[in-house]
Amino acid sequence: MISVNNVTLAYGKRVLFDEVNIGFTKGNCYGVIGANGAGKSTFIKILNGEIEPNKGTVDVTPGERIATLRQDQFEFDEVTVLQAVMMGHKKMWDIMIAKDALYMKEDFTEADGMKAGELEHEFGEMGGYTAESDAAQFLNELGVKEEMHSVLMKDIAANLKVRVLLAQALFGNPDILLLDEPTNNLDVETISWLENFLADYQNIVLVVSHDRHFLDAVCTHVADVDKKKIKIYTGNYTFWYESSQLASRQASDKNRKMEDKKKDLLEFIARFSANASKSKQATSRKKALDKLVFEDITPSNRKYPGIIFKPEREVGNQILNVEKLSKSLDGKPLFSNVNFDIVKGQKIAFLSKNPLAVTTFFEIITGRILPDHGKYEWGTTITSAYLPNDNTEFFTGSLNLMDWLRQFVPPYVKDVDEDFLRGFLGKMLFSGDEILKKTNVLSGGEKVRCMVSKMMLQNPNLVILDEPTNHLDLESITAFNDGMLNFPGVVLLTTHDHQFMNTVANRIIEITPKGMIDRLMTYDEYLVDERVKTLKEELYS
User: What is the pLDDT of residues 502-534, one digit of tens each?
Assistant: First the structure.
């Protein structure tokens, strides 16, 4: 067990945590959620001892080991991949180094032999004699091939380093596992493996993630960081979100009787408890929900953006026609022979093993760069709005948010006053004097929210979204997801957010160096389609 007692942390006048008291118990996985800047990653660092609180203590059951997903990709540059994984169990690694040093001594004494015997026993008790094979197995399952195991960390690609550091954290069955954004830079197959691994994990896990699908798959509880406190709720992220929304609606309904409210909440708990039996975390989550009482469900204090796109006009029959589009970079094809038409009602997810391919494709159809071959043609009724992956070019000046947004008002909009612009900024949670903030001091999440304000202002009937969830907190991601579900126009998108992709898209197009795959189905259906798997093997071979 790990318990947090009266923990307070402040940086100057800014208080992150004020008298936090919570405990985490074996067999549970806690999803640590909170707005950007609330202190999620800082809390993980307090738990692992990297940051000392101003006040309070973190107590761990004696003998239990904490493992953390390291964020510094250069920390282990001078050791091999396999060694980096084994170093995740520091005590075992230190014993291995110590006993090997004894055996290397030229004047090996009887006392050295006694000490070496003690170390060998302790090493064996920790599972040291299978450590290399265990580490190699983790690497193989995470997609790091055997020929890479003896390579120095400094000589492998960044995306592989992420996997090695993840294997390092998981190695040796730690009693307490702390994971900060573990799905970053992982492909869907590796994320699925991690979901299954954590769902079966019997010890304590705390995970910070903006991936709602991942949180739903692995978490039995949610640890909500809000207003300098942390409160633990039973259930996964979706249960927390929907139950808090239900409680908020009930709190505003003063006319309904308490008995009716209680009945609705109990029915809600029962429904989720039944659904839990179908999830990967079935046993532990269902037990937790079965113990839940309706008093435990409270309204959320969170604010959600209002992402509402209102097209100026409906799309016509001709939307976008793409013929034999191809593009290479440095002599290597990103995609080739892309052909498709779009019809009304379609929301299309674009995939590629190379994310640059989709970004380049979007840059071509928005007129920013030219293709090598082929052509595309937009319908005359289309008014599009584009959210690029890199928005740097939009924030080079130092305008305040009001004047920045004013630049993008469509010419047909008359009487643009302060209230008009405040309305669009307010929907993205810029209120009061925040609209006077200079664009050159905005955070990554604030820039994305500005870009969404700009898009809504344009009243598009077609939106193009390149990684729309980047830099956003869970509240903004959820609101964006809901906005796209309710959007009556056409959506072209690519995202690493599984839930966003699966709930919004009704058509999947995968572009590859050798051609494309085009299917009218959801993302989850696409992932398990055997014909698609066969085609992908051919196109990526």
Answer: 999 999 999 999 999 999 999 999 999 999 999
For the four alpha carbons of 211, 213, 215 and 221, in that order, the dihedral sign comes to positive
Domains identified in the chain and CATH numbers = 242-296 (no CATH), 320-540 (3.40.50.300)
Which residues have C-beta within 8 Å of that of residue 125, sequence separation ≥ 6? none
Angle at CA 33, nearest 5°, toward 3 and 160? 95
What's the pLDDT at 51?
95
Q: What is the DSSP string of 72-123?
A: -TTTTTTSBHHHHHHTTSHHHHHHHHHHHHHHT-TT--HHHHHHHHHHHHHH
Q: pLDDT band at residue 278, thresholds of 50, 70 and 90?
A: very low
Task: Give the C-alpha separation, 502 to 413, whole Å.
Answer: 35
With beta carbons less than 8 A apart as the criterion, state whether 44 and 206 touch: yes
- Cβ contact 345:378 at 8 Å: no
Predicted TM-score of the model (pTM) = 0.87
- If you ran DSSP here, which 8-state letter would residue 412 be given? T
Closest CA to 432 of 401, 398, 397, 470: 401
DSSP label at residue 20: E
Q: How far apart are CA 246 and CA 264, in angstroms?
A: 9
Q: Note the pLDDT tens digit of each residue in 186-196.
A: 888 899 999 99
E strands present in 197-269: 204-208, 221-226, 229-234
Kindly tell me the burial class for residue 393, based on how many C-beta atoms sit within 10 Å of its own C-beta (0-12, 13-18, 19 or more).
exposed
Asked if 49 and 456 touch (Cβ cutoff 8 Å), the reply is: no
The span from the CA of 187 to the CA of 275, in Å, is 27
Cα→Cα distances 330→327, 334, 389, Å: 10, 10, 21
